[in-house]
Amino acid sequence: MRSSGDETQVEINAQAGEPGGPRVVKQLRFKVRGEEEVAAVIGGIMEVSTSEVTIMSDVAELDVEIDEARAKQAKERVEAEKTQRTDKIDVYASELALSRAMARLKAAELGKLRKQRGGGIR
């Protein structure tokens, strides 16, 4: 996903990384030429200055691209499998998969709310 630079407003749900380090982005809402867009951003980092927001991520999906039923199934599957994991790497992989599913579901939910409200960030 690439920006045109025409954004007038950006709202970001992010999680702090290491102290002094980058933040991990989860959902992104932004306006382009008056139209609100919502995206799930899986991993990545963000840098904010007074006039610019830069987000670098391998995966970003607009809400309209998210298969909500598939994301719900992934969440349920990971939650069920997570209880059976004991190895630290497997637990970590499960937590990442759960985080990805939750970010996608939240972006889809925000997209629905946007459509109900008529498209504006409030």
- In one word, what is the shape? flat
Q: What structural category arises from helix and sheet content?
A: alpha+beta
The topology string of helices and strands comes to EEEEEEHH
Low-pLDDT stretches are none
Tally of domains = 1
Mean pLDDT: 79
What is the oligomeric state here?
Answer: single chain
Sketch the major β-sheet: 4 strands, antiparallel
Radius of gyration: 16 Å
Helix content: 25-40%
Major β-sheet strand ordering: 1-2-3-6
Describe the 3D structure.
The two termini are 24 Å apart. The protein has one domain (7-117). It has 122 residues and is α+β, with helices and mostly antiparallel strands. The longest helix has 30 residues, at 88-117. Helix 1 runs antiparallel to helix 2. The strands form 2 sheets. The chain has a 4-stranded antiparallel sheet with strand order 1-2-3-6, covered by helices on one side. Strands 4-5 form a two-stranded antiparallel sheet. The protein has helices at 68-82, 88-117; strands at 7-16, 23-32, 35-42, 45-48, 53-56, 59-62. It is flat, with a radius of gyration of 16 Å. It contains 2 helices and 6 strands, in the order E-E-E-E-E-E-H-H.
Features:
122 residues, alpha+beta, four-stranded antiparallel sheet, two-stranded antiparallel ribbon, 37% helix, flat
